Amino acid sequence: MISFIWAEDLDGTIGKNGQLPWHLPADMRRFKEFTTNHTIVMGKRTYESLKRPLPQRRNIVLSNALEPIDGVEIVRDAAELETVLKSLTDDVYIIGGAIVFSTTFGWVNQLIKTVVSGHFAGDTKMIPIDYDKWQLTDRTEYSADETNKYDYAFETWHRK
Predict the structure, then answer these.
(1) Which region is the signal sequence (predicted)?
(2) Which of 57, 69, 71, 111 is most buried when burial is the number of CB atoms within 10 A of its CB?
(3) Sheet holding 134-142, edge to edge
(4) Rounded to whole angstroms, how far apart are CA atoms 27 and 49?
(5) How many CB atoms lie within 10 A of CB 152?
């Protein structure tokens, strides 16, 4: 299964200066639970924001500009990425950014989304998604607490 996994605010903002505009430990735990021991796919800027390959994952970066990096599989274009993904039997998680989301949208059959209840300044928005073509299969809402400073919801969607 190929899934998008991301967090956005109420305006669809997903990033600011290459980082998340909020700190939400519950979302980071969820991300880790889904992606550990699986393949993750990201763009160059998302990889650079992480500063290193994420451990216990197969890290694939879509970029025609990166030099080889230990622990990272670099694919140079969408066609090469599609070939690699079609050869996998494992779950794949597309983690961003917006260009990679746009490039891979047609291949995805699950959306794993965190909605952060707030409005944050940012420079990157999630790509438009027509949710009429998706079925919401799970939504769990959480209130802010000492660790997570914002209300948030975890959602899972499947392509109809």
Answers:
(1) none
(2) 111
(3) 72-75, 58-62, 39-43, 92-96, 2-9, 110-116, 152-159, 134-142
(4) 17
(5) 23
Query: For 29-57, what is the mean pLDDT?
Result: 96
Write out the two tokens for 9.
């605010």
Q: What is the pLDDT of residues 44-85, one digit of tens each?
A: 999 999 989 999 999 999 999 888 899 999 999 999 999 999
Could you tell me if 40 and 50 are in contact, meaning their C-beta atoms sit under 8 angstroms apart? no
- Whether pTM > 0.85 for this model: the answer is yes
CATH number belonging to domain 2-159 = 3.40.430.10
**Total Cβ atoms within 10 A of residue 41:** 26
